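Bench notes, afternoon.
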Amino acid sequence: MSRRVVSERLIVTIDFAAWMGGSFFQISPDSQRVTYAARVGAKQFVVVDGNEEKPYDAIMPDTLSFSSDSQRVTYAARVGAKQFVVVDGNEQRHYDGILEGTLSFSPDSQRVAYVARVGAKQFVVVDGKEEKPYDAIVLGTLSFSPDSQRVGYVARVGMKQFVVVDGKEERHYDGILEGTLSFSPDSQRVAYAVQEGTKRFVVVDGKKEKYYDAIVTTGGGRVLFDPENNLRYLAGKGSAIYVVEERIKGTEHCNCAGAFHA
């Protein structure tokens, strides 16, 4: 007959009088480590596995996180009017601002990227290296490829939006549809949906696909690659919705019958 064996191991003791709570508390993906932000007097600091890091004027909300391998910790801090990223206890360059929700590790946990602001310009910083400044980096678009070697995002100059991959700008359009920028599983291909005037279409590896009245991005609709790196999305023309599929091993497109008609 089997017998249950239960054990426990102390990983940290939290000073709740100083603990800032909420998003300032994080457990590593492997559940073996804990980090949180604390406040003593006018200063705030991060505690990792019970060890206090350098105090700052503020730890920025929603920035404290572990890497996916649970070995690394990053967050954004503020001293005076300047904000900066701290990775494994090491400060990076100070800027006028670090955009909320942009700080992240790569899938392999080896790289760090975020969006910084100097004056009215915004730019991506990857591994401490600044990319070209733009009027804006569209929030929620900065991402690493699955193999962690490539970086993509949507930028804006004036009224035009465009995709930047590996530091190289693609064609400018009226808009890039929200949530559509994606890498293929093998990290070699890039796709996204575009708005140009009244038409919508998908761009794959820099090439425009067929025009439609709509690319469906609501109710679960996505522009995505399957495990074999083939592209699939839903497109609308008039009252019909089509499944559009591009197979990487052929040049044909399979436009299946509309899922429904209005």
